[in-house]
Amino acid sequence: DNKEAIVNRDLAKATALAEAATEIAHKQLLTTVANYMNPPDGGVALVNGNTVAYTITPAGTQRIEYDASGVQTIIQPYSIASDAVSNGISKHVEKIIDVEKTPIFQYVVFYNDALEILPGPSMHLTGRVHANGDIYIGCGATLTLETDYLRSTGQIFRRRMDEPAPTLGTVNIKVKGTTNYVNMQNWKDFPVASDSGFDSAFNGYDANADGDYTDAGDYQNWTIGALDKWDGTVQTAEHGTKEIETPAVGAIKTFTPTVGGDYTYDPVSDSYLPVASGTGDYDKGYFYSKADLAVIDGKVYDNTGVEITVWPDVDGDGIGDNPVSTSTFYDGREDTYITTTDIDLEILGESGYWPDNGLLYTTDTSSDADQPDGIRLVNGDVLAAPLTVVSPVPVFTLGNYNVGDAVTPKQPASVIADAFNILSTAWDDAAKTPGHLTSATETTINAAFISGSYATNPGMYNGGFENLPRFHEKWAGIPCHIRGSFVNIWDNDVGTGKWIYGGDNYTAPGRDWDYDTDFNDINKLPPFTPSVVGTTRVVWVSR
Length: 543
Fold this sequence. Notes:
The protein is mainly beta. The chain has four helices and 37 strands. The strands form eight sheets. Strands 16-12-9-6-35-32-29-27-25-21-22 form an eleven-stranded mixed beta sheet. Strands 1, 2, 3, 4, 5 and 37 form a six-stranded antiparallel beta sheet that branches.
C-alpha cells in the first residue's frame, strides 16, 4: 500500500508537470501568432522549480470557417505535447487545438480590458462585440445590439464601473439566429429586487422558496437566464468565454527591444543606430519594418530607407509639392498647444509615392506625454488606394476621410495609433484657443481604428466606448458618421490627457457609428489588419 501510494503521488506530480508545460506552451503559441511571429517548435517550461520540455507541431491543414454573419476565421490545428518525470514515473500529455485567427476589424467593438458602453442618445451597433474583461452597459435612451456575439471574459453589468449607480435606458440585444430582440432589463424594469437589474450579479429569484427556479414568478440566475433569453448571443466567463490574444503595443513602436537585433540605442544622440546584424539589442517594430513608406520627424523615406527629397509638381506651378508640412493648434484635452506633422494624402496620391503595400508608418520621435505632438491626415476624403496609417503618437483626421467620389470609391482603410482624434470639416487651427470651443460641422469617417485609452477608476470615468475616438469641437448633436471597427487594446503612452466633457474640450456629436460590413470579406480588409487569436481544444491525450 505504501509503495502504491508513492507511485500514485509521483504519477500525479508528473501529470501536473506535463499539463502545466502544455498550458505554458499554449500561451506562448497564442502570443507569438497574435504578434506576427512564427511559433516555436518547442521549448522548456519551468514549473515549480522543475524543467519540463514541450513540443509545438502543426497538426493539419489550414482552413477558413464562416459564422452566420459572414465573419471569416482562419484556423490552423496544432499539437502541443509534453513529457514529465517524477522519481522515475513518466507521464505524456498531448492536446490538439485549433488556433483561430480572426481579423480584429471583423468586430464592431473589441476591447482588451473592461468595456463601457454608456451613450446618452440612442445608438445602434451591428456586429461582434468582445471584451477581454468585464462589460458595463447602459444608455440614456435605447442601445440596440444587432449581433449574435456579445462576449465578456469576465462579467456583464447593468451599472457603471466608476460608481455603483445602476444604468437606466433600454438595452435591446438580438436573440441568436433570429430577428427578435430581448431587453437586458435595468433595475427599475426588472420585476424582482436586484441591485442593477438582470446581469451577472443576479443570482436568481425563487418566489415560493421550493428550491427551484421553474415555477410562476421564479427567475433563473444569470448563467441560465442569459442562455434562455438570448440563446447564446450573450456569454460571459460563467458560460466559458475565454480571453482572445491580441497584438502588443510594441507592434506600433518605432523600435522594440530584442536579443540579436540590428540596432542599438545611443543616449547621447537619443537615437537608434544600425549595427552589424544580430549584434544589437533593438529591432524595428513590426509595422515600421513592413511599411513601404515612412514619415519620420517630417522626413519621408521609401522602403529601402532612402529619404525622398525630390517631389513632382502636382499642381503645375513649377514647384515640387512635398505632401508633408507642420501645423500648430491648441489641444484642449491635453491642455497645451501641439505641433502636428501634416500629411496631405491628396498630394501623396498624385506624387507616385503612395505605399505599394498600403502601409504608411509615421511618427514624431520628440513627442511624449509632456508634449504630445502628433500626426494629422489632411485632404483624405478620397484615398488613392487602400491605406493603413500606423503611429506610436496621436493621429488626427481633418475633415471627411475616405468617403470616395464618382471616380475613386472608398478604400479599405485604418488608423492604428496611440490615440485617434477627429477634427470636423469646419476645423480652424487659429480659431481653437484656450477657453474657446469652435463649432463642428457634419463629418464622415470610413475607417477602422485601434486607439489607446486608460482605465476607468472609482470616480474617474475614461469616457467609455462612446468617447474612444476623441473630439475637440462643439458638436452639440451634429452628426459624425463612422463606418469601420472600434478597437482598444493598449493604454495611451503619449496622448494621456484625461476625458473631460465640455469646457474647451468638446461636446458630443450625434454618433452615427457602425460596423463596415465590407470587412466581412477578408479581401476588403485594410492592409496589415491585425488578428486576434483564440483556441478550441479538439483532442486531449494523457498516457
